[in-house]
Each structure stands twice: as C-alpha cells, then as structure tokens.
Write the structure tokens for this entry.
Amino acid sequence: MPELPEVETTRRGLAPHVEGREIREVIVRERRLRTPVPEGLENALIGARIGALGRRAKYLLVPLSGGESAAERTLLWHLGMSGSLRVARLGDLPRKHDHVDLVLEGGAILRYHDPRRFGFVDWLAGNVLSDPRLARLGPEPLSPDFNGERLYAMSRGRRISVKPFLMDNAVVVGAGNIYASEALFLAGIDPRRAAGRISRERYQRLADAVREVLAAAITQGGTTLRDFVSGTGEPGYFAQRLNVYGRDGQPCRRCGAELRLITLGQRASVFCGRCQT
C-alpha cells in the first residue's frame, strides 16, 4: 500500500509536469472506485488550471481554478492499496486498470492506475482541510507540531501496544506498518510495550526516529512493494535500507540476533528482541 513517503514522492514527481497546466479533456474509463467518480467530472474540469500540488497524510491535493464552474475547487486523490498517478503522453495507449485521465495542455496526461480500485478521486469546494476525511488527522510527522512531548501526553493511561498507537492517524499521520516498524527499531523500543509505560525521553527518541525514517524514505523515492512507482515511473529504493520490516528470521543488522515475527493489531511486526526493549 502506498504510504506517506510514496504519496510525497508522487507529488514531487508530478509537480513539474502538471502545475500551471490547463485541463483540456477528462476521460473516465471506470467510475466504480472505492468512492464512485463524481458524475459530471468530465465536463466540470474542462478549462480548469492546476495549481501547486499539496499533500495531507496519504491524500494528494490537486487545487484547480477556473473551468466550467469558474470556482476554486480541489481534487482529493487517494491511491488506496494499489493505485498510482503517473505522467503519460498523448499516444500512450491506456493499460488495463487505467481508470482516469486528465489530458493537459502541451500533451501531458495525468493518468490514474488502480488494479484493486480501492482508491478514489473526489471533487471538493471550499476548505478541503475541513473535509471529515482530513479534519480529524493528527500532525504531519515532519512538522514542528509532532514531537516526543505529544506522544508522551497522548499515551498516558493507554494500554495499547506502542506500535498500533504510533500507527493511529489521530496521533500522527504517515507512520504506517513499514515506517512504524523501522522507527521503533531505530529508537530501540519493543513494539509490544504498552504505550502508557514509555517515558518522555524514549518518546522523544521515537519522534526523532519517525522523522529520520520518513525523511530518508522520501529521499529514496519511497519503498517499492509490489508495483509502486513514482509519478514519473521510477521505483522507490528505501526497501534496500530496511532494518526489520520483511526480514523475519534474518540476522539483526545491529547485533546479529535473529529477527522475530509477531502480530500486533492484526498486522505483522518484525523486531529484534535484543536491541528493542
């Protein structure tokens, strides 16, 4: 599933090719996504111009101005479990599961591909951040609003294990299964430990580790699992730097002990029983 670094990589890859471009045509081949493609989208977007792409958690924000409605609106795009947004060119034939095309001036096409159809695109007016899907989200992990003090304060009295606590989007966005596992390893924290029994100092180390892991993943273009590629078709390379995720039964890169696989919150979790306490 594309996580925050993959969506940020997509945003950065798409931006030079689509920002400032006018939409000349919209092609919808399949409306039956997780949320059906809004009726009338094809006509409403004609003539609209794309502004600076944004991101909130795993949502890509595509601001638009002008067009048929002559109003400023935003496309809210979610890649689901298997989706990707890529830049194609006029003449590039659509593949199976290429569901939506935005044909832009200059011949570029913003093309949405989603084999499982768990993603969606929605058409919003007004302040997009007030939409219920975004309004309840926690802070961005690379922002000043996220720190060890916040983790410590929100964890008091919580019996839930620290890993699912960290993966809660109301606590912080972007710490999905891969990156939560890696951050807990860097911070030396056992993922099974109760969130409410971790000290302020250790939470500060964990917050620092979350930032370090996500920043490195963005720099490396995300983590290629199955078929994720960036907006320009490039794979991510962070998988080559994973310390624990997907490495159960292999030796710990730090101490050599065999990495263990457990299940937490119905998600697989790999950790080192010697380095993480």
User: Anything to note?
Assistant: The mean pLDDT is 91.
